[in-house]
Each structure stands twice: as C-alpha cells, then as structure tokens.
Design a protein that fits this description.
Shape: globular
Distance between the termini: 33 Å
Strand order of the largest sheet: 1-2-3-4-5
Number of helices: 4
Order of helices and strands: EHEHEHEHE
Largest sheet: 5 strands, parallel
Strand content: 5-15%
Number of strands: 5
C-alpha cells in the first residue's frame, strides 16, 4: 500500500519479471488512480500476464503511457489489453511492438484506440 504517497511513473523494463511477478504487481497496483506511465517492456510476459494486467487496468484512470513491447503476449493478449484500455480516456501512448501480434489483430487494436499512438 502506498499510504499517503502517490505513484505516477513505474519503469520496470528489462527485469524479466514473468507472468507471476506481473500478476502480483498488477494486484498491488489495482487502484493506482494516479499512475500515468507503466513500462513493462522486455519482461517475458505471455498472454497470461497480459490477461492479469488487463483485469486491473480499469483502476488506472490517469494512465497515459503503457509499454509492454518486447514480450510474448501474442494476439489474444493484445486483444485483452485493448478491451481494458478502451475505458481509459487519458491513454495516449501504447507500445506493443515485438509481441507476435498478427497484422489483423494489430489493425483491430489501432482502430479500437483511435486517440492513442499505438506502436508495433
């Protein structure tokens, strides 16, 4: 718990955290309404990790930037994330590159988040 402190930026890229650690992190951050940047690039996330993250993204009402590039979330994981991210009006930047996302899914993600700069 953060108590009276507010978390705005969390950069954890390149820590090879894996799905279990990201699931624990997601649970800990469940209601982080002040978080504006979350960088989980290069953390060996799979579809399972993306799904757990998607389950809590709704509580990140101030999120502007999310990076999950250089993982292995695949098309199904990307779809889980985009469905959760559609509810976050502040999101302006999404990094999904190098995740094995098929072109058809990438097109859906871009169309589902028209106000967001999505990078593959």
């Amino acid at each position: 718990a953060l108590g009276r402190h507010s978390l705005h930026t969390l950069r954890l890229a390149g820590n090879l955290m894996g799905d279990q650690a990201v699931a624990a992190l997601a649970d800990a951050l469940r209601h982080s309404s002040t978080l504006t940047l979350l960088d989980l690039a290069d953390n060996t996330l799979s579809e399972q990790g993306a799904t757990r993250l998607a389950e809590v993204l709704g509580g990140f009402s101030a999120l502007r930037n999310l990076s999950v590039k250089d993982n292995a979330i695949g098309g199904a994981g990307a779809l889980q994330l985009v469905e959760a991210l559609r509810a976050i009006a502040t999101l302006s930047d999404l990094g999904l590159g190098s995740n094995g996302v098929p072109d058809k899914v990438a097109s859906h993600v871009i169309n589902a988040l028209p106000e967001c700069d999505v990078r593959f």
